[in-house]
Amino acid sequence: MSNLLIRNVRIMDGDAADIRIRDGVIADIAPELEPGDAETVDGGGHIAIPALVDAHTHLDKSLLGLPWYKNDVGGGSLIGMIENERRIKRALDYDAHVQSMRHALRTVAYGGTMIRSHVDIDTEGGLRALEGVQQTAEKLAQVVEIETVAFPQSGLMIREGTAELMDRALEMGAHLVGGLDPCAVDRDPKGHLDTIFALAEKHGKGIDIHLHEGGEMGLFSMDMILERTEALDMKGMVTISHAFCLGMPDFRRVDAMLGRLAALDVAIMTTAPSSSPAPLVRELDARGIRIGAGNDGFQDTWGPYGNGDMLERAKVVGQRNNLRMDSEVKRALDICTGGGAVAMGKPRFALETGAPGDLVLVSGDTVVQSVVSHAPRKLVVKAGRVVARDGKTLIDAP
Amino acid sequence: MSNLLIRNVRIMDGDAADIRIRDGVIADIAPELEPGDAETVDGGGHIAIPALVDAHTHLDKSLLGLPWYKNDVGGGSLIGMIENERRIKRALDYDAHVQSMRHALRTVAYGGTMIRSHVDIDTEGGLRALEGVQQTAEKLAQVVEIETVAFPQSGLMIREGTAELMDRALEMGAHLVGGLDPCAVDRDPKGHLDTIFALAEKHGKGIDIHLHEGGEMGLFSMDMILERTEALDMKGMVTISHAFCLGMPDFRRVDAMLGRLAALDVAIMTTAPSSSPAPLVRELDARGIRIGAGNDGFQDTWGPYGNGDMLERAKVVGQRNNLRMDSEVKRALDICTGGGAVAMGKPRFALETGAPGDLVLVSGDTVVQSVVSHAPRKLVVKAGRVVARDGKTLIDAP
Lengths: 398, 398
Known about the structure:
Two copies of one chain form a homodimer.
Chain A: E1 3-11, E2 16-22, E3 25-30, E4 39-42, E5 47-50, E6 52-57, H1 78-92, H2 96-109, E7 112-120, H3 128-139, E8 145-151, H4 162-171, E9 176-180, H5 189-203, E10 206-210, H6 215-231, E11 238-241, H7 251-263, E12 267-270, H8 281-286, E13 291-293, H9 310-320, H10 326-335, H11 338-343, E14 359-362, H12 367-372, E15 377-382, E16 385-389, E17 392-393
Parallel strand pairs in A: 1-4, 1-5, 6-7, 7-8, 8-9, 9-10, 10-11, 11-12, 12-13
Antiparallel strand pairs in A: 1-2, 2-3, 5-14, 14-15, 15-16, 16-17
């Protein structure tokens, strides 16, 4: 097991210290620790922050490393974008293992050591995407923890056979049951939600459902999700991703829903989008709701943006929520590090004894300055193992 | 005068060519041009785009190069942020010349060769900020064109003596008359607007007014601005910066206003903010309204974000407006290059014969890929003079 001593780092904005990680866990943080038989690395006085967590992405969508995809579809229609993706992937003979390796290692290079990835399950691709991502998760097990969500991207009730594939995906080891806009895409909220909650119950797994539906429609779907969460005693086991409806202007409606989300300990994952309403950090924090953040897919058929950098995402979260104080920007960072792990139901990444040995060294004068400039990553450590240096992973991407 | 031949570049996503710039203007674009007596630089096959334009910033606010400013004020109150800035600048004995040099040269390093800067005019700082920025504009005249707006940041009607200082600022050469939230800050829209339009009339100069006011209040102020624009025959001479009210949900109200803005050829400058309503590119384009973009102040007492990179701003504009198609992202870029120059009432930067000799070489596979990755700048050319290479200006910042 790991036995690593990182010398001479600044603990967030605090004093210089050494960090000892033993058996994957932070064993000691203090100045001038004795190396003993530990592998020793010089931290160069850089700032140590907890490792980054991408709590919402799609490892099976990126076109990284392929010729530039010229997008002429745009964002007008969700169904149109879904169909376009299937068409392009078919034409490219898309290899989910190779692409998920590229995507995951890019994330690691930026300091991400934990990823929750939705993986398309549909009657066209079958379980191939999941197989490819699982292969990547296994190969990179010592580099980045990858959690998979069986995600019915093309719809569940509208494509016969998808529920059975989801069932097999969960048997194969997908960690969570996914879902997608039960009204807008499936046009059968009862059927969609009954199906995914039944799968969750059968397999004893949690749920992470995409909910892009806005305003009252989104609140209606959310209400039906919460009914089932309560009825099946799934407190703490449900995540709602995007949850755009929580950004609707009628705050009385939103706040009532936030109270119910808090009571059932439902986690919210956000990309902090700039072009749509979104759950707001201050409002969710006031209710103590767990929040994670994600890059979502990047450089895929959906759009050209993004790069896998969750430190840059912390900046985006800060800007989206008008967080200007240093203390607020640090909360945005927390959502992309320890808070994101907690939102995933995992132990909090933190720079303290007993926490997971997952951390990143970044250059910069202060933590906030590092966030706003998405400063270079000097060293990335996963469970006490060095996995990237100077923005490059030790394992090469295919 | 300049006589420059840039060999072997790609013209946007087009074919390889050479670019000749003579006397500050693009004289020829074709493969294998004869060098003659021109200074010759190798473009290395990089992508040439028109130079970037920051059409809305504050050169007299940045804290670049100073110790990190820990913000504990936040964004709750506009007046609070204004007062905090005055207090901090006093404590720092703020040097507007040095700071504006740092800010402007950072912009140039990223490929910006034209800047419109609002400059604080108030009864505390007097004309010192303008003097400092004018000194910078003069020193950098061959590097970046800097246009100044006399900006009553601390209020106009609520601080006696400010109008007289504005008058002197315009005599001193400030290019435009500024203004600020005539209802929300000055609480006297008639007084504020009558004053700034009288100054514009007296000096024969245009207006660029900050309008953060949202919803109906913003539309009311905008209505009063348009009344005066029409009455004083100032078609094409007025700019409204931010114009958050144009992002209000009631599109019938917005669209009626867009029609009037178009009729009076009022330009809109935006930062494409993610945390507030904002004018939307597609809607303004449908009316043919001139749009420029800006970084606004960065790393100042207002907030920690931003860096002076208008190519990154093009990405922000694209994301804020949900522009996913390559053609749409190129429009976002245009707003930050040639379109921004036009919004400022200047000749369009463009890669064509007769256009200003202001351009940037960026690395990347395609223009859109360069935008979304805010790719490294290899060469920056202002009016046929090389002013930055590999992200570094040829002149050092103080």
